[in-house]
Specification:
about 80% helix
């Protein structure tokens, strides 16, 4: 009876490892999918912050992504489904997207800090020039 139980358990484990979705012939690489998801996150953020900006520049999110990465909607959908069916790989892709977002955010914050410092320097120079004119 124990042998039958072990055999059943073995087949249950093996069947769980089986891929649910086969990789499509035109699978988008993990690196390219990371870039696509990153752009989608940025565009989604822009749309949620001020949707008029995208409309003003006539940017349709998905059309923009398809054109930029030279993929079509079916290829993207199949690739997305495949990666979603492999949670370990999907998680790895999204962790890379998070790193890219954090890096971009750091760059923006650093740029803002530089701008603030430059504004302060310009303000001090203006005050100095006004004070010199008074003297």
């Amino acid at each position: 009876m124990k042998k039958i139980g072990f055999i059943f358990l073995f087949f249950a484990i093996v069947s769980c490892v089986e891929k649910l979705v086969e990789a499509p012939d035109d699978l988008i690489s993990k690196e390219k999918m990371t870039d696509i998801y990153f752009d989608l996150a940025i565009l989604s953020g822009a749309k949620n912050t001020d949707s008029k900006i995208l409309a003003k520049h006539k940017i349709e999110t998905m059309d923009y992504v398809y054109k930029k990465y030279d993929v079509d909607s079916l290829q993207f959908a199949k690739s997305d489904l495949f990666y979603a069916s492999t949670p370990v790989v999907y998680k790895e892709i999204y962790e890379k997207v998070q790193i890219k977002i954090d890096t971009a955010l750091s760059v923006v914050k650093a740029d803002r800090l530089i701008e603030k410092k430059q504004d302060s320097i310009d303000r001090v120079k203006r005050l100095d020039s006004i004070n010199k004119k008074k003297d």
